[in-house]
Each structure stands twice: as C-alpha cells, then as structure tokens.
Amino acid sequence: MVYCISDLHGDYFKYRALLENLSFQSRDTLYVLGDVIDRGPDGVRLLQDMMARPNVVPILGNHELTAAICLRWLLEEITEARLAALGTEQLAVYQNWMRNGGEPTLRALSRLSQEERQELLAYLQEMDLYAQVKAGGRTFVLVHAGLDHFAPDKALEDYELEDFLFCRPRPDAVFYPDRFLVYGHTPTRLLHRQMGNPPSDTIFRHGNQIAIDCGCGHGGKLGCLCLETLEEFCV
Q: What's the pLDDT tens digit per position in 95-131?
C-alpha cells in the first residue's frame, strides 16, 4: 500500500503508533510531506528513523529547508560561541528558525556526533520538492504546502522552491482536473473553518485537492491518507 502523512513536528510516538496501526511493512511505501522537525522534541529521532527505512520517502518542508541552511554553518560544533559568530543574514535565518520551533531540533543536533550531523544534512539536502505517484488507478501530486502560482499546464519542474514550501492554498481552489494535489503545511482545522464548517482535525477534501496536516504540531492529530484506496487514518 502507498500512504502519505505530513507535519509530524517532532511527534515520534504518533508516528510509531500510526505505523503500528497500519501494520506498515517493507513492501508498503510512506511519503512524508515535510515538516518532520521542530516544535516537538523528537524531530531528529524521526529523521533518523526515516533514514533507516528505504520505503519512507521524504518531501522537503519549510522547516527542513531552514534547518539545512543553518546546519551548514553549525556543522562543526554547535556552541554559544559559534552562534555568536554568525553574520547578520545568517543570524536572521537562525532567529527565524528559533521563532518557528527550532530549539528542540537544535538541542538534539548538538548531541550528535559530527558524522551523524553530516549524514543528517546530506539527507535533508537530498529531499525532493514533490513526488508524482500513481496508485489505485489515480495520479497524485504530493507537495509540502501546495502549489503557488498554479497553472494546470505548468510543468512541476518549472515552479520555484517557494511555490512548494510556503503557500496557503484557498480551500475552494481548483487544481488539476485529472490529478489529486495532496499537501500539508496548513492545519486542516483552518481550512474547514474557511469553508464555513466547524474546525476539525480531519483530512480536508475539496474537488481534487486533499489537505492532510491534521494539526499534529498544534495539539491535533496525525492524519494519514492511503493513496490506493483514499481511506483515511489518524492517531
């Protein structure tokens, strides 16, 4: 089976509980649509677990992007002196990371060896911006945040990095007529509310768009979509 989740934000226990609920096997595939790290305590532990599973496919999120930028500067040793030596631009990126929940991730990184940090950085740098997947007779475009500056005939490789990582799609937006766009980043409770419905930490669907960030990083649930059957799971 082929599944996708997003926005774990350091919640290792919900991730493992979901894998157990799915009876996830080596023949299955799990796409993780970004924002594995930050806010919660176990983002680095999650990444290391994912790295050890060839059937777990990461898609880059904005939190991974920021961590990768900062980790390049902090790779040798994460100390107060190293932080104090950052330039103005570097410091702005670092401060933005901390404001957006990066402190638990930085603490965990500081406990790793240099070799482990190198491996983690390589993993972050190799993450794709999107995946196009066929499952259950349907085609899915999997991204972190949506597709900004969308045009139905625009090739995926022609979008900018920011178009995949930072946008907030309108809940009533119309995307592909023949493909499902699946994304995280925006908690679905907000999308439900924007459509005039009670806020709910459940997967949001409208036409051919499916939003799966059920608020795991904000006290909500970890949502999961099975691409083969369109069945929904949550923990």
A: 899 999 999 999 999 899 989 999 999 999 999 999 9
CA-CA distances (angstroms) from residue 81 to 30, 85, 139?
40, 6, 50
Is pTM beyond 0.85 here? Answer: yes
Contacting residues for 45 by C-beta, under 8 A, at least 6 apart: 12, 108
Helices then strands (H, E): number in the chain? Answer: 9, 10
Backbone dihedral angles phi then psi of residue 22, each to the nearest 5 degrees: -80, -10
Which residue blocks in the chain are alpha helix, DSSP H?
A: 12-22, 43-51, 62-74, 80-84, 88-99, 103-110, 114-125, 161-165, 188-194
Encoding tokens for residue 111?
Answer: 């406990």
Specify the residue for token string 């599944």: 3
Crossing angle (nearest 10°) for helices 12-22 and 43-51: 40
Residue type at position 221: K
Q: Report d(CA 23, CA 25) in Å as an integer.
A: 6
